[in-house]
Amino acid sequence: MRNQEHENTQALSDFVSTHNLRDRFSNTHFNALVDITTAKNKLVSERTKVRITFDGYNNAGTVSLAESSLDPYTYPIVYEARWQDMDHIDNHYLLITGNHTSNPAIGAYTVKIIPLGKVRDED
Question: Within 10 Å of residue 103's Cβ, how many Cβ atoms?
């Protein structure tokens, strides 16, 4: 695992832990306010469900905007710690930055995820 990938995984894990986003079954599925800025579009305070997984072969951590009506050709909706930079900012939100090289309409982007609470809080 390269150093940046390790730092991204650590930031993602810290985000999940700090905000107590795992349910009693170790699922990380929560409601959030999401801001996305791309080369051509901007989305502000979109309420959506987010999933974070660390399972599977060679998965350093994956963030998915689940149950979202976002067009994947306009906004990125899956982010991997292997490829995007992830930072837990001021113990408040997750900041993801990247560059969609195969879709210039997305291009360089930033994503801000502010957690609102678990989808299924059974703890």
Answer: 14
User: Distance (Å, rounded) from C-alpha 12 to C-alpha 54?
Assistant: 10
pLDDT block averages, 10 residues each, the chain of length 123: 83 94 88 96 94 83 86 92 94 96 93 91 46
Q: In the structure encoding, which two tokens stand for residue 96, read together?
A: 């993801």
Cα–Cα distance for residue pair 109/40, rounded to 1 Å: 10
The Cα-based distances of 51 to 15, 68, 73, 107, 109 in angstroms read: 13, 11, 20, 23, 19
**Where exactly are the structural domains of the chain?**
3-118
Helix (H), strand (E) at residue 106: none
Is CATH 2.30.29 the right assignment for the domain spanning 3-118?
A: yes
> Residues 100, 107: contact at Cβ < 8 Å?
yes
